[in-house]
Amino acid sequence: MRWRSRPVFIVNRTPAAVKTLQDPKLQAQLSDPASSAPQQPPYADNWHRSVKPEYSVLVGICTHLGCIPMFYPDPSDSLPAANWLGGYFCPCHGSKYDLAGRVFNGVPAPYNLPVPPYRLVSDTTIRIGENPPDVTWDFASIAQI
How many domains does the chain divide into? Predict the structure, then answer.
C-alpha cells in the first residue's frame, strides 16, 4: 500500500513475534530500543510502536538513503544476514530493523522506520493518514524519513 507516495508496511504480528520485541537479546542490539527519537505518533510511542501490539504500521523507507527494505519476518542463521532475528533488511546498504521497525546498532540507518498517522476504524480496517479521535499529530514532526 502507498500513502503520500510512500510505501506503507502493514503486518499482523503473531503472538510469538510480539513476544520477541521485548527480548533483552534483541533490545541489546538496537540503536534506539525505546524509540526516543520522534519517529512515531504519541499513540505509537511504546515498546511495540503501534496502537495494538499485534499490528505494525510503518513507512517502508530506509532512514539511511531512502531505499525500500525487504521483509524477512522469520529468524534465520544466515538470511538475509547472519543471526537474523526477523524484521526488515535494506538491500542497498545493509541496514536492519526489527519487527517494530527499530533500527539495529552498527548499520548506516540513523533512525527507526517512521510510523505514519493511522487509526483502527474497526478490528479489520486501518485508516492511514488519520489520527485517532482527540489526537493531533503531524507526520512532518518526525526526525527523518
Answer: 1
| Burial of 57 (C-beta count, 10 Å sphere; 0-12/13-18/19+) | buried
Helix H or strand E segment including 17: helix 15-20
64 is catalytic: no
Question: Could you tell me the pLDDT band of residue 123, with boundaries at 50, 70 and 90?
Answer: confident
Q: Which three cell numbers stand for residue 43?
A: 499513540
Integer angstrom CA distances of residue 68 from 19, 56, 94, 122: 26, 16, 11, 28
Model pTM score? 0.94
Task: Give the structural domain span for 97.
Answer: 1-145
Of 4, 52, 93, 127, the active-site residue reads 93
Q: pLDDT, tens digit, for every residue of 13-70? A: 999 999 999 999 999 999 999 999 999 999 999 999 999 999 999 999 999 988 999 9
Q: Are 33 and 20 in contact (CB under 8 A)?
A: no
Burial grade of 113 (CB within 10 A; 0-12, 13-18, 19 or more) = buried
For cell 489520527, name the residue: 131
Write the CATH number for 10.
2.102.10.10
**Average pLDDT of span 3-9:** 93
